[in-house]
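Design job #97: recover the sequence.
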């Protein structure tokens, strides 16, 4: 299957979720909790949405590693893709985070699980750049084309071009940075709200790239290997249509399939012709996450893909890439209860 679509993912089950006030200033997608709603109720609703996403991914044969987080000082820990990315060949990146109260979302137990369950050769940690005010928030700041090795990046306070260049040198990607603005002239805070790259199809809000030449360059680069480019509107971006991710699942008979995971609001915002283009190569899996979306991110932000080879299980066979749904799938250290492996 494609290098673009991981068959395993990491989710964080954040029991103390609330929209993070420290990120509201530059995240135009973020909203406040409905007036009069207790924070405990917000957290409860968000937790149910996280569990629903984990279940939906397991239903289509994606392996899900879930980590519990009961720390009330980490309201955005449900978005692990901002501090962590994994790459073919055994490489892992750890990123510098813009908001100071997000920096302790980085977890050693997640890295230990990756090292024990998958083949990890090198971990490159850029978080030491934070005291210098230099940030690159993972696969939120960058949307990576793992096939053509291009890092599409909307420049913002959370995506510094200097560290982008360092990442691209270390991980052998071509940087493609550009300005992206909403209709009010506000910079897009994360690239992954305006673009999703799959194996054969990409969703991108090209109209939010004001420079006409750069807009055309992005389109051409995305489609160079025959990938279909589906343009989405700013209104659809506001419904998180760009915040989707392609994954590799399994059918009940064990055969592999591509799925495009997105939120219910994202799916409902798409026109029939856009859905048809996606479904030429992917099955759409949508889950309603309206409470999570109050924080300015959606399903893509909740998923850290695992682009690593599994270590052999006992007996020399590779560890399975899909697991059955288990009644109690959640553990504090990300273990897969159904398999008994991390």
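Job complete. Output follows.
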């Amino acid at each position: 299957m494609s290098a673009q679509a991981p068959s395993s993912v990491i989710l964080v089950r954040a029991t103390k979720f609330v929209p993070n006030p420290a990120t509201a200033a530059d995240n135009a997608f973020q909203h406040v909790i409905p007036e009069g709603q207790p924070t405990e109720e917000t957290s409860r609703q968000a937790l149910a949405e996280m569990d629903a996403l984990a279940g939906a991914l397991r239903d289509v044969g994606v392996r899900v590693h879930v980590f519990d987080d009961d720390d009330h000082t980490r309201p955005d820990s449900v978005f692990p893709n901002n501090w962590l990315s994994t790459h073919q060949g055994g490489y892992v990146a750890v990123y510098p985070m813009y908001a100071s109260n997000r920096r302790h979302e980085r977890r050693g137990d997640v890295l230990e699980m990756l090292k024990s369950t998958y083949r990890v050769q090198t971990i490159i940690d850029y978080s030491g750049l934070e005291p210098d005010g230099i940030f690159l928030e993972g696969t939120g700041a960058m949307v990576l084309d793992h096939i053509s090795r291009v890092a599409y990046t909307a420049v913002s306070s959370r995506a510094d071009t200097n560290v982008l260049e360092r990442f691209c040198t270390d991980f052998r990607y071509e940087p493609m940075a550009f300005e992206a603005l909403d209709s009010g002239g506000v910079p897009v805070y994360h690239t992954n709200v305006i673009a999703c790259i799959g194996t054969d199809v990409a969703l991108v809000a090209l109209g939010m790239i004001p420079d006409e030449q750069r807009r055309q360059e992005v389109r051409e680069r995305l489609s160079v290997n025959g990938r279909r480019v589906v343009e989405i509107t700013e209104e659809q971006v506001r419904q998180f249509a760009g915040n989707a991710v392609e994954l590799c699942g399994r059918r009940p008979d064990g055969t592999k399939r591509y799925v495009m995971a997105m939120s219910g609001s994202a799916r409902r915002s798409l026109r029939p012709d856009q859905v048809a283009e996606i479904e030429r190569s992917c099955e759409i899996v949508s889950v309603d996450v309206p409470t999570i979306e109050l924080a300015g991110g959606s399903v893509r932000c909740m998923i850290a893909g695992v682009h690593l080879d599994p270590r052999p299980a006992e007996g020399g066979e590779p560890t399975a890439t899909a697991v059955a749904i288990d009644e109690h799938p959640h553990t504090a250290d990300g273990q897969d209860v159904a398999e008994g492996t991390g």
